[in-house]
Amino acid sequence: MEKIGEIIHLAKSGRLIVKIEENTNHNLIGQALIDDKGTNVGKIIELIGSVKSPYASVIPTLNSKYNVGGKVYKSHNVNHQYNSSKKGNKSRRRKMK
Q1: Of 80, 61, 58, the residue nearest 7 (C-alpha)
Q2: Domain 3-74, CATH
Q3: How far is CA 76 from the centre of its chain?
Q4: Is there a contact between 11 and 78 (Cβ–Cβ < 8 Å)?
Q5: Cα(8)–Cα(17) distance, rounded to whole angstroms?
Q6: Which of 8, 32, 49, 85 could form a cystine bridge with 13, CB 3.0-4.6 A?
Q7: Which three-class secondary structure state does DSSP give residue 97?
Q8: What pLDDT is attached to residue 60?
Q9: pLDDT given for residue 23 in this prediction
Q10: Of 6, 70, 80, whose CA–CA distance to 43 is shortest?
Q11: Following DSSP, what letter does each residue of 18-61 receive, concatenated?
């Protein structure tokens, strides 16, 4: 298993934020991730931050169990179902008259 990084945050959108390891190839968009037990964690949707210190925004798999601080690795299996971003009860702005 090739280590990608560490889960550092769960965003309000429902996405996981992963700190990418140094010396990791940055061609990661679309890459499926697993934890140290081989359980599916999610899929990288975009890379954010600087080139020297990148982070990945990850959509978690359906019913995935993950730990903030947990390590994630490349998965060679890409047939997983993913959650879309949560658009729950967000208030909308009203137009001023």
Answers
A1: 58
A2: 2.40.10.230
A3: 16
A4: no
A5: 6
A6: 85
A7: coil
A8: 92
A9: 83
A10: 80
A11: EEEPTT--S--TT-EEE-TTS-EEEEEEEEEE-SSSEEEEEEEB
What are 31-76's pLDDT values in tens digits?
999 998 888 999 999 999 988 899 999 999 887 778 889 999 998 7
Of 77, 48, 43, 72, residue with least CA distance to 59: 43
57, 48 Cβ separation under 8 angstroms? yes
- Sketch the domain layout of the chain as residue ranges: 3-74
CA distances from 33 to 17, 28, 64, 83 (A): 12, 10, 11, 14
Which residues touch 43 (CB under 8 Å, ≥6 apart)?
A: 30, 31, 32, 33, 58, 59, 61, 80, 82
Of 10 and 78, the structure prediction assigns the larger pLDDT to 10
CA dist., res. 89 & res. 8, Å (int): 25
The token pair at 54 is 């990148």
